[in-house]
Structures are given as structure tokens and as C-alpha cells.
Design a protein that fits this description.
- There is one protein chain.
- This protein is of the alpha/beta class and 325 residues long.
- 36% of the residues lie in helices and 14% in strands.
- The radius of gyration is 20 Å and the shape is globular.
- The N terminus is likely disordered.
- Bound molecules: N-carbamoyl-L-aspartate.
């Protein structure tokens, strides 16, 4: 049997060839991804972390933007499942010589990768590329559009700590305007029945955000009241042209998470941040490093498991122990 026939999709379970965003995924599909990831967490906590579900398959990681956590965890995820993993970064590719995105995609496609993991600075670029290649494409972040695996790893982290997503009150605070993380999290949390509050200065949080089905706050103290999860966003200065803020010092005063502001959230609220963190800009070290409240290291651990789950599901090579919860 050819490899393509063996890697059949899962009818009625995960109805997509690619993972380009959270928008459009059903609660059942999100639950399947999270349940599969739970099994991967167990695998990753063993001494021998290697399996062979993806043996014979090729995964290419194509990153047009810098990344530490996302690229490393996709690489580890593929290797732990037994795939052959190739990392391509723009610095060492022909893109530096002027090759276009689609020419690069076609070149890589000719090498028959089963999965392409792509990060690109332009919103929509990953979707465009997905239309041109044969294998499955996973969006590892496109511009300020979506970052689906980040939202999935955040959801997995929350679900394992709180036992559910349904009914939780989640505050997402900071630079919403430039954040693909926030957008994907909003889609996911809304789909799973959580309530989302967005907290940011008006320059970084246009009123139109309310159309995403969230409550908008410009006063952090009011927005944090009673929240179960406080998710901080990095101030993405590399995406800002012009002045969005008077100064980072003033930003921290009004929107930086410190112990005093955190005290307004639910007494058992957890703190999250996708990383990389700007300490003293959007988050104070005292709360970021609080082992009782901060889930930031756990998010990184869950990132590997979630990316393994995405690879298994998109290649149709699911493990057997993934029961519905
Ligand atoms: C995020 C990203 O790249 O969108 N980081 C990540 O993937 N862990 C968030 C950010 O860069 O602030």
C-alpha cells in the first residue's frame, strides 16, 4: 500500500487537511486535539519518550520569522513520533536570494514532505502556501492573524489545571492589536464556552474587537475582577510603526501585571504568557516566577504535546489510547 493511502484522513472526527487556524474548528475537533495531546503529555514524561507513529513521514519546519519555543517544540514533537524532521530558516535559504514564498513552497513540495510547519510575518501567507502543496500544512503563526497551536497549548494547560474550559472567565491583557495569540485564543475559548475579557489601552484594542464576542476593558483593575485566568501578551514593538504608547514605563504602570493588580482577580487565578516575556513591561518578575500562580513553564511543556497531537491527527496516525472525555 502506498504511504498516501495509509495516511487516510479521519472522516467525521477531524475534518480538515490543514491546521490554518482555530476559526472554523468545532468543539469536538478541539476536544479531539486536546485529548490526543493529553496522551502525548504522558509519553513525554516517560524516560523513553520516543514512539514511531510517524515513522517514514517527513516534516519540514519553514520559519520566515524568529522563534524559540514554537520551532523547537515542533522539532521535538516530530522527532518524538519518529518522523524525519528538517528545519529551514530564512537566513539559510534561497529566500535571501530573492526566491518568492510560492517558489520556495513548490521547491519543498517537490521533496514530498508529509507535513509543512510554516511561520510567516504576513497574515494569510500560510493559507496561500497551503493551496499549493500536497502535504498537510500547520500554521505556526501568520502575521497578526492566527497561531492555532498556541491557543491549543494554552487550552490544554488551563484544562489540566482547572478540569474544564466551560464557564471560566479568562482575561487576555495587553497588545491585542498585533497579537495572533489573542485572536486564536478568543476563537477557541468562545467555542469551548469560556468567557473572554480583553484588557488594553484604546490604541492597542480597537472597539471592533467586541465583534469577536468578548468584553472590552481599558481599565485593568476593573477587567481583572474575578477572573480565573490572566493571560498576558507581549508588547510587540517590532510590529509597531509610530507611537502607540507614551512609554513602556507608563504602560507597565497601567497595564503591567504585578502582585497588586493580580490581587483583584480570583484568589486562585493562574497567570499565563506565551513568551517571550518583556519583564517589567507587561509583567513583573515577582508574578511571572511565582510557582504557585504562574503556568508559563507548563505552557512550554504542553506546547510539545499539542504539536505532537496536531501531527498525529493531520497525518491520520492516531495513537489508540485517545478516548473522548
Ligand atoms: C508568540 C508569537 O510568536 O506569536 N510567541 C510564541 O509563539 N510563543 C507571541 C509573541 O511573540 O509575543
Amino acid at each position: 500500500m502506498s504511504r498516501r493511502l495509509m495516511t487516510s484522513p479521519l472522516p467525521g472526527r477531524f475534518g480538515h487537511k490543514h491546521l490554518l487556524g482555530i476559526e472554523g474548528l468545532s468543539p469536538d475537533e478541539i476536544t479531539l486535539l486536546l485529548n490526543t495531546a493529553d496522551a502525548c503529555v504522558e509519553q513525554n514524561r516517560r524516560v523513553d519518550k520516543k514512539q514511531s507513529h510517524l515513522r517514514g513521514l517527513t516534516q519540514i519546519n519553514l520559519f520566515f520569522e524568529d522563534s524559540t519555543r514554537t520551532r523547537t517544540s515542533f522539532e521535538l514533537a516530530g522527532k518524538r513520533l519518529g518522523a524525519d524532521v528538517i528545519n529551514m530558516s530564512v537566513q539559510h535559504s534561497s529566500i535571501k536570494k530573492g526566491e518568492t514564498l510560492l517558489d520556495t513552497a513548490m521547491t519543498l513540495n517537490a521533496m514530498s514532505p508529509d507535513v509543512l510547519v510554516v511561520r510567516h510575518p504576513n497574515s494569510g501567507a500560510v493559507q496561500l502556501l497551503a493551496q499549493k502543496v500536497t502535504g498537510a500544512v500547520i500554521n505556526a503563526g501568520d502575521g497578526s492573524h492566527e497561531h492555532p497551536t498556541q491557543a491549543l497549548l494554552d487550552a490544554l494547560t488551563i484544562r489540566r489545571r482547572k478540569g474544564r474550559l466551560q464557564g471560566l472567565l479568562v482575561a487576555i491583557c495587553g497588545d491585542f492589536l498585533h497579537s495572533r495569540v489573542a485572536r486564536s485564543n478568543i476563537y477557541l475559548l468562545n467555542a469551548m464556552g469560556a468567557r473572554v475579557r480583553l484588557i488594553a489601552p484604546p490604541t492597542l484594542l480597537p472597539r471592533e474587537a467586541e465583534r469577536l464576542g468578548v468584553e472590552v476593558f481599558h481599565d485593568m483593575r476593573r477587567g481583572l475582577a474575578g477572573c480565573d485566568i490572566v493571560m498576558m501578551l507581549r508588547l510587540q514593538q517590532e510590529r509597531m510603526q509610530g507611537a502607540f504608547l507614551p512609554s513602556t514605563r507608563e504602560y507597565f504602570h497601567f497595564y503591567g501585571l504585578d502582585a497588586e493588580k493580580l490581587a483583584l482577580a480570583h484568589p486562585e487565578a493562574f497567570i499565563m504568557h506565551p513568551g517571550p516575556m518583556n519583564r517589567g513591561v507587561e509583567i513583573d518578575s515577582e508574578v511571572a516566577d511565582d510557582i504557585h500562580r504562574s503556568l508559563i513553564a507548563e505552557q512550554v511543556e504542553m506546547g510539545v504535546a499539542v504539536r505532537m497531537a496536531c501531527l498525529e491527527i493531520l497525518t491520520g496516525r492516531l495513537r489508540n489510547d485517545t478516548g473522548a472525555r
